[in-house]
Amino acid sequence: MTDIREEPAAAGAATSVVREDDRVNLLDFDLEGLTAWCASHGEKAFRATQLARWLHRHVEGDFEQMTNLAKSFRAKLAELAKIEPPQPIAEKKSADGTRKWLFDVGNGNAVESVFIPEDDRGTLCISTQAGCAMGCLFCSTGKQGFNRNLRTSEIVGQLWWAERELRRDRGITDPNDRVISNVVLMGMGEPLQNLDNVIPALKLFLDDNGYGLSRRRVTVSTSGLVRQMDKLAEAAPVALAVSLHAADDALRDKLMPVNRKHPLADLMAACRRYLKVAPRDFITFEYVMLGGINDGLDEADKLIELVRRENVPCKFNLIPFNPFTQSDLRKPERDRVLAFCRRLNEAGIVTTVRKTRGDDIDAACGQLAGEVRDRTRRAERLAQQKAEAAVILQKGLGTR
Ligand code: SF4
């Protein structure tokens, strides 16, 4: 039975009818939004701060446990609000400590989060969209097509859920003793295509009354949406990782359709602008290495030339491609990856090869799409992308 009741009118608003399912999800609010919502229900700003600390520092999901809130406020919260992260429908644990959750986001869509423990940090990789519209040739998520943007609560909820689970497992009760020290928006989706929901989530990650992470410990990854990079710089200038994957427009056009709209010169100019406010004095370039496509030393030399010419201080993170069933692209040979890495380092550009983690649970980015239902024109896109990959493989670099 649906519970229908009268909600106290917000300032300037007519009295409205609230159904139980219409309770606000408090995980949708950054501190500013929470303060405004509390004010609209007659509560002072310090109550919003207290509430935010319970929600995000204690990762508490039960209003009754929020003991320093007035009883009347707790009753009001129970009536009008809820704390609702997305629910996990699968969880996998790797022998190396990597954990993966697959979260249900409704209508047959699911998104994934991956926790990667290291000696000095715990990193959570989270998703920002169900599917992705960018159509990068080498990406499993891109092959699903785009389903929808995640809400702020679905983005924040991944961190909320993971932190809670990990703390429970370790028996941690002190709210200052956090397991997740770093967050990277590198899961499913292009974060900068969902700025309306991503920005409040980032603000909450950075807020001392939220997750209290420094800007250096929060990284947004983009395929190269230049105008949105400027917006991010203005609203929440966290660390930035740019998916580069090619040293010239001819190849990047083929690997990443976004390049046809925002070619390398525009992207490099946007990187220079971003660096003026970035928490680090370099941009991280992600470079997926595709066997026989972009893994030769001539490509390394072109990259060196590109970043010197464009004057972008940077580091490179090389990601050896991990083949998946719907792709004809090839894994690069280990020797070529190491030689490529060496060439960049010798040129004075700090370059690392991404460590493979969670192999036994398919945790590497872009490898988990098989568990998500495709809601879009998958077969068509797949056929087109396979044809494009075949052309590149057949003709190699000589076609450019
Ligand atoms: S690599 Fe990133 S931007 Fe490109 S299709 Fe995959 S999820 Fe989207």
TrEMBL record:
Gene3D superfamilies in the cross-refs: 1.10.150.530, Aldolase class I (3.20.20.70)
Binding of S-adenosyl-L-methionine, residues: G189, E190, S221, S243, L244, H245, N322
Reactions performed catalytically: adenosine(2503) in 23S rRNA + 2 reduced [2Fe-2S]-[ferredoxin] + 2 S-adenosyl-L-methionine = 2-methyladenosine(2503) in 23S rRNA + 5'-deoxyadenosine + L-methionine + 2 oxidized [2Fe-2S]-[ferredoxin] + S-adenosyl-L-homocysteine; adenosine(37) in tRNA + 2 reduced [2Fe-2S]-[ferredoxin] + 2 S-adenosyl-L-methionine = 2-methyladenosine(37) in tRNA + 5'-deoxyadenosine + L-methionine + 2 oxidized [2Fe-2S]-[ferredoxin] + S-adenosyl-L-homocysteine
EC number(s) per entry: 2.1.1.192
Something else known: Reaction proceeds by a ping-pong mechanism involving intermediate methylation of a conserved cysteine residue.
Keyword check for Membrane: no
Active site annotation, chain numbering: E112, C365
Cellular component GO terms held in the UniProt record: cytoplasm
Keyword tRNA processing: yes
GO biological process: rRNA base methylation; tRNA methylation
CDD domains membership: Radical_SAM
Record note on cofactor: Binds 1 [4Fe-4S] cluster. The cluster is coordinated with 3 cysteines and an exchangeable S-adenosyl-L-methionine.
Purpose of the protein: Specifically methylates position 2 of adenine 2503 in 23S rRNA and position 2 of adenine 37 in tRNAs. m2A2503 modification seems to play a crucial role in the proofreading step occurring at the peptidyl transferase center and thus would serve to optimize ribosomal fidelity.
EC class (word): transferase
Domain of life of the native organism: Bacteria
Source organism of the structure: Sutterella megalosphaeroides
Gene Ontology molecular function: 4 iron, 4 sulfur cluster binding; metal ion binding; rRNA (adenine(2503)-C2-)-methyltransferase activity; rRNA binding; tRNA (adenine(37)-C2)-methyltransferase activity; tRNA binding
Domain Radical SAM core: 118-360
Residues where [4Fe-4S] cluster binds: C132, C136, C139
Cofactor(s) essential for the protein: [4Fe-4S] cluster
InterPro entries assigned to the protein according to its UniProt record, in alphabetical order: Aldolase_TIM, Elp3/MiaA/NifB-like_rSAM, Methyltransferase_A, RlmN_N, RNA_MTrfase_RlmN, rRNA_lsu_MTrfase_RlmN/Cfr, rSAM, rSAM_sf
Name of protein: Dual-specificity RNA methyltransferase RlmN
